[in-house]
């Protein structure tokens, strides 16, 4: 099983990235991390993720390009995920 589940959402109009991200969050297995690639920060997603018990880390890998990491299992060490906590 791959630790990261990648979801490419750049270029999609709102609310499509939020819909796809929350759908994929529901399908994560223990130990998996959802890595979303976006061209903006999804502030509403951060709140939804926290309400559902997910941890969130964000890394801007190029100007205006973000990797959003979401996971809920404590078996994934937070220091193994790049980015800043949100």
Shape: globular
Radius of gyration from the alpha-carbon trace, in angstroms:
12 Å
- Uncertain regions: pLDDT < 50 for 5+ in a row? none
* CATH homology group: TusA-like domain
Topology as H/E string? EHEHEEE
- Can you give the mean pLDDT? 94
CATH topology: the name is Translation Initiation Factor IF3
What fraction, in percent, of the residue positions are helical?
10-25%
Q: Provide the spatial order of strands within the biggest beta sheet.
A: 1-2-4-3-5
The class by helix and strand makeup works out as alpha+beta
Tally the structural domains: 1
**Distance N to C terminus:** 26 Å
CATH class: Alpha Beta
- Total strands: the figure is 5
Largest sheet: 5 strands, mixed
Q: What CATH architecture label applies? A: 2-Layer Sandwich
What proportion strand?
Answer: 25-35%
- Helix count? 2
């Amino acid at each position: 099983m791959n630790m990261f589940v990648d979801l490419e959402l750049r270029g999609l109009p709102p609310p499509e990235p939020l819909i796809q991200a929350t759908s994929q969050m529901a399908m994560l297995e223990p130990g998996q991390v959802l890595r979303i690639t976006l061209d903006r920060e999804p502030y509403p997603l951060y709140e939804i993720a926290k309400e559902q018990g997910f941890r969130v880390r964000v890394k801007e890998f190029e100007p205006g390009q973000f990797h959003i990491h979401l996971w809920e299992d404590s078996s994934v060490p937070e220091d193994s995920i790049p980015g800043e906590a949100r």
